[in-house]
Amino acid sequence: MFNLTSISARICIALISVSHLVLLAGPDSFAAARPNIVVIMVDDLGYSDIGCYGGEIDTPNLDALAANGLRFSQFYNTAKCHSSRVSLLTGQYCFAAGNTKMNHAVTTAEVLGSNGYFTAMTGKWHLQEEPTDFGFDRYFGHLSGACNFFKGDKTFRLNGKAWAVPETDFYTTVADVDYALKFLKEARRTAKPWYLYVAFNAPHAPLHALPQDYAKYQGKYEQGWDITRNSRVVKQKEQGLLPKTLQPSPRPEHIPAWNDLEPWRRKYEANRMTTLAAMIDRVDQEVGRLVDDLKANNEFENTMILFVSDNGACPYDRKA
Question: Is the pLDDT confidence value at 316 over 90?
Fold first, then answer.
């Protein structure tokens, strides 16, 4: 990881997303060896979903980054999917930057690219035009706000050209990192510092998980959302994320007690949470694969990593 201080390296890891991020990379902005930059954005991840924020989902790779870096507890986003992405890329509020057109701002990719960085992106775009129109040298992913994780959609692009999703052996979260690693391999041949933006669609709906990831959590959530919630609150208090005297907020009217649900509904909701957990687990595995690649290429110590979510859990039921 990039050494931000003379004492220790720091990774910035945040789960309440970006409201203001500006990366300026003039020739004299950094030390002689300018850091590589990785920005990872996930989609609709709940604040307490991963281990280092009190969750029970297995996320050892993200937890390791948090343990050796900075873990933010008050790092806010704009609470919407596309607007958080605009702010992440421009350092401005969404409408100040020109909303999805971003025509009143410059992007991080444009600034870094003009100062000698190789720039690449993979994953969800959800803005107008394409990433290659906003300073990214390379892009793989979908322009849409969400897609089928196994079948994709017709908005997939590879470096500005339409890309046909394979009929088999495809899963979006894995493909995002497959292409991220390909782009990094290309960046290394240029001998330039690089900026990589990985925008996972997971765990956004539709809820689609790989079978091996789903099997890992099968049966785990039959205990219900009340027990899961209480367990997370206890862990967050232990981690110092919540005051020890804080009382849980009242139950929302539209969410009944778990034991008041009919058996079919409990089974349905447990299955959905199992799938969500599996999707988050897979994100962590892919982050681990990316980190392993940085270490294998002796770049980890000179790479700054920022992990964020575009917003928290979806506030309404997508029936997925």
Answer: no
